[in-house]
Amino acid sequence: METxxxxxxxxxxARKSTEEDDxxxxxxxxxxxxxxxxxxxxxxxxVKVFTEAKSAxxxxxxxxxxxxxxxxxxxxxxGILGWHPDRLARNSVDGGKIIYLxxxxxxxxxxxxxxxxxxxxxxxxxxxxxxxxSKYFSDNLVENVKRGIRQKIRRGEWLTLAPMGYVNNFKTHxxxxxxxxxxxxxxxxxxxxxxKYTLVELADFLADHGVVQKKGTPFAKCSxxxxxTNRAYLGFVKHRGEWHDGTFKPILSPTLFEAVQKIxxxxxxxxxxxxxxxxxxxxxxxxxxxxxxxxxxxxxNRYGVTYTYYRCTKKNGNCAQPYIQQNLLAEKIQxxxxxxxxxxxxxxxxxxxxxxxxxxxxxxxGSVVQNLKTKLFETKxxxxxxxxxxxxxxxxxxxxxxxxxxxxxxxxxxxESFRDFGQQGxxxxxxxxxxxxxxxxxxxxxKTSNHLEWKKFFQSIGSNPSLKDKTVSIHWGELWDFVxxxxxxSGLPSASFHSENSLPISNFxxxxxxxxxxx
Length: 519
Ligand SMILES: [Zn+2]
Known about the structure:
The radius of gyration is 31 Å and the shape is elongated. With 519 residues, it is of the alpha/beta class. The chain has a 4-stranded parallel beta sheet, with helices on both faces. A 3-stranded mixed beta sheet has the order 9-13-14. A 3-stranded antiparallel beta sheet has the order 10-11-12. The relative contact order is 0.07. The protein is built from 17 helices and 14 strands. The two termini are 60 Å apart. It has helices at residues 28-41, 62-73, 85-88, 92-103, 121-132, 134-154, 181-193, 199-208, 221-228, 254-267, 326-340, 344-359, 366-391, 397-424, 430-447, 451-460, 478-486, and strands spanning 8-15, 44-52, 78-81, 107-111, 166-169, 174-177, 236-239, 242-245, 286-287, 294-300, 306-312, 324-325, 466-468, 471-473. The chain folds into 3 domains: 8-154, Rossmann fold, CATH 3.40.50.1390; 166-252, Putative Large Serine Recombinase, Chain B, Domain 2 (Hect, E3 ligase catalytic domain fold), CATH 3.90.1750.20; 344-516, no CATH class. The structure holds zinc ion.
């Protein structure tokens, strides 16, 4: 604290109006952030903060008046710190007042990161111009800010106020994990990944550990979801809806993050307002008789009641397969889900076992490393291609953002596996780990009636079912066969079913590891 004596004292004034030509100016929050950073750098002590959401084109701003009064009544010299003169005044009355107060030494100094001011006649003239012709200056300002932001993104720096769990580091212009809150957040993710917690319980958990809203109350559900999906924890930077690679330290491992996304999407309620998928089970099954795709249509009976039916497209000609009503089809698919949905304790036992295995050292991993390198390289290539597609205007921004997000997350995951590999050979068990994760997902999904998510689940485990004689059958992978048979799920037809895999669940440790990682 030896420096406070030598520091310049200033009040901070930030303003942004809701007017048309102010739209491109930084938000008040961003101004505050930038100015605090600037003050820190320039050894300025901020004694009071004034913010105003009003135009400065006419005199009569309340906060501005309060600030002038505060300075006039102060017993020690105080200056004003603002982003640019045009934040302070855009009319000759307020502008003249400020220049007059500078003249009679009531305002000790004026400081702007975007404008150099010195109390000489020339300086005051420039200031007068800035107050008057601020349009020119604000245009310049927007360019400067944009340029600054682009540079920051290239350096992988966080652009604004640190997100929850991080703190701004004024030396590196980046963010660092908050030593306490980052751990709380990691624990919250770990807890949610178990599937045992609801969003409300998680909010309470966070509150118990001191992570609360400004008012001191626990977070609302939507805020918890926002936290659970925040890619900043993976080390990404967001700018205008787009995520970029950051250079700050991630709080979470991609595996944990994806585990949470799976639980979230399994629990997400289907949107009722937007009926974008009236036929959830199309582009999913093939006909068990002729191999054609299964499609859907509405059928209205003579009483005027409309039903959804699924049927073979019969593009190959003769096929005798009947229609099946959506409700009945959903029931059959739910039964499939139930057949692999294990009790929670069983899943937890598996997880324990995997962790034990992870702690044993495993050798001979050369091919896996090579495989990972290839995957990582491919993902980077895909990213590059995607960016050039977007730059050439070949794809919509929305699609670009969606795909980029997926690819970035994939890349982070591969990079994680790569890092882990050097240590314990964890990723040899990664397929098994993600298999158990899918088991959990199945357990969650089975309880919902989110048909679209059901379909996604089956697609994610890599097998599309076939429909024959109003019966759905699926080719499970080997591990899935094992689970289904362990549940006594007889009558589940599968090409890859091997009887030697039908061990009781307590013998899970005997399953050959290679079964889960053939790809
Ligand atoms: Zn058919």
